[in-house]
Write a structure and sequence with these properties.
Helix 2 packs antiparallel against helix 3. The protein has a single domain, classed as Tetratricopeptide repeat domain (Serine Threonine Protein Phosphatase 5, Tetratricopeptide repeat, Alpha Horseshoe), CATH 1.25.40.10. The radius of gyration is 21 Å and the shape is elongated. It is built from 6 helices and no strands. The N and C termini lie far apart (64 Å). The model has no long low-confidence stretch (mean pLDDT 88). It is an all-alpha fold.
Length: 132
């Protein structure tokens, strides 16, 4: 009798934890068509802060799709997506993405770009390849 009660309680606890876990695993909300680039970045950062790397990546992809023609937003999105790959443990993909960002600074209009993404990407490449 006592063993049966313990099993029932354990099963109920498992069900409760499962429901709680799956209710928190929601997909990111759609981005309104009129959302500014800053709003999309904010949404992405909120997902990242909530440890939802896939949700953050989704919003950075939206930023890239909608504002990718602006080189600074494009570099911002690509850097953040590369960093997410790093956080996921995908070292090779992250290094390749960081190198792509650095290469963008070889373009003729590089003087108009914020140096932030190049500096951060170079630091990440050095860290990930052990060439500090």
């Amino acid at each position: 009798m006592r063993r049966s009660l313990i099993r029932v309680v354990a099963l109920l606890m498992f069900i409760f934890v499962s429901v709680l876990f799956f209710s928190c695993a929601s997909s990111p909300a759609p981005v309104p068509q009129d959302a500014s680039a800053q709003k999309i970045i904010q949404l992405a950062q909120e997902r990242y802060d909530a440890y939802d790397l896939n949700g953050a990546s989704y919003y950075y992809q939206v930023l890239l799709d909608r504002y990718g023609s602006d080189p600074n937003y494009m570099l911002n999105a690509k850097y953040e997506m590369a960093f997410i790959e790093y956080k996921k443990g995908h070292k090779d993909q992250a290094v390749a993405a960081f190198k792509e960002i650095v290469a963008r600074y070889d373009a003729p209009d590089a003087s108009s770009l914020s140096p932030t993404w190049k500096v951060l990407s170079e630091k990440m490449i050095a860290e990930l390849t052990g060439t500090k």
